Amino acid sequence: MVLDDLGSSLRGALDGLRGKSRISEEDVQAVVKEIQRSLLQADVDVDLVMDLSDSIETRALEEEPPAGTSARDWVLRIVYEELVELVGESTELPLEPQTIVLAGLQGSGKTTSAAKIAWWFSKKGLRPAVIQTDTWRPGAYEQAEEMAERAEVDFYGDPDEDDAVKIAREGLEATADADVQIVDTAGRHALEDGLIDELEDIESVADPDHNLLVLDAAIGQEAKEQASRFEGAVGIDGVVITKLDGTAKGGGALAAVNETDSTIAFLGTGETVKDVERFEPSGFISRLLG
Ligand code: GDP
């Protein structure tokens, strides 16, 4: 981990260990306190922060640093390893034909993410298609069509059809030539039963390789409940965190990752189709702590 990426107060706390050969409880607590402050500010769930703190304290005080490793480097290594454990590895998405269903509440960024993910796969040499099944939100069809056009990927939708499951079925057939079929679903304002039922039906028609849950970086306490509902309905194996170009650092979404026992797949960093990054632990950790 590059030290410049750490917040200055955390760097200060680690510098307190400079030149020491033994690590005292106070030294570790000073470091842990700074990490806690940053993570809580980044909306990371308090229970996750406490678990991480306990792991860092226990390891730093009980494990023997390898010979030749300074106290400061040792604690830094433990901190980094535990932070990677917290945020997880990137969701595995092999570059091969697959079907992806996007789930999430309205406004979370599903339609935008569908086009972004399609664009990402197209840059990897695959042929993606976006299938728009959101019959609920006015303008969703036009928005999806326009974004798919900008991403230069195949698109299917039917603005005259109300039955989202039928659109999904027909869309999967119509885009059967595509390698990666990305099904965008309707999101509502809250976790209504209708939303969940429709999602379950689309999921059974699509039989996807991945169900990705799309979450706004600004999500807080609600992340856990949302994740558990979507997990219960279709099973979530990856999370997309959107709007990371704003002030929110996306730490709230980690509760959803924990709840669904999944990993983070993509990060959304702007409104255009190109504003997408594959999740990668060290960059995300720097963002959380910075
Ligand atoms: P949906 O209802 O879940 O399909 O959400 P949309 O894809 O329509 O996104 C809702 C709003 O958030 C739109 O105005 C998008 O332009 C915006 N949006 C989505 N992703 C991002 C992002 O990564 N950064 C920014 N700044 N805006 C985003």
Automatic annotation (TrEMBL):
Signal recognition particle SRP54 helical bundle domain boundaries: 2-87
MF terms (GO), sorted A to Z: 7S RNA binding; GTP binding; GTPase activity
UniProtKB keywords: Cytoplasm, GTP-binding, Hydrolase, Nucleotide-binding, Ribonucleoprotein, RNA-binding, Signal recognition particle
Domain SRP54-type proteins GTP-binding per the UniProt entry, residue ranges: 97-290
Enzyme Commission no: 3.6.5.4
Enzyme class name: hydrolase
GO terms, biological process: SRP-dependent cotranslational protein targeting to membrane
Compartments it resides in: Cytoplasm
AAA+ ATPase domain span: 96-280
One GO cellular component, as annotated: signal recognition particle
Annotated catalysed reactions: GTP + H2O = GDP + phosphate + H(+)
Residues the record lists as binding GTP: 104-111, 184-188, 242-245
Similarity-based family: Belongs to the GTP-binding SRP family. SRP54 subfamily.
Record's function text: Involved in targeting and insertion of nascent membrane proteins into the cytoplasmic membrane. Binds to the hydrophobic signal sequence of the ribosome-nascent chain (RNC) as it emerges from the ribosomes. The SRP-RNC complex is then targeted to the cytoplasmic membrane where it interacts with the SRP receptor FtsY.
Record text about domains: Composed of three domains: the N-terminal N domain, which is responsible for interactions with the ribosome, the central G domain, which binds GTP, and the C-terminal M domain, which binds the RNA and the signal sequence of the RNC.
Subunit structure: Part of the signal recognition particle protein translocation system, which is composed of SRP and FtsY. Archaeal SRP consists of a 7S RNA molecule of 300 nucleotides and two protein subunits: SRP54 and SRP19.
Full protein name: Signal recognition particle 54 kDa protein
Organism from which the protein derives: Halorhabdus tiamatea SARL4B
Lineage of source species: Archaea, Methanobacteriati, Methanobacteriota, Stenosarchaea group, Halobacteria
Gene that encodes the chain: srp54
Residues of the full protein shown: 1 to 290 of 465
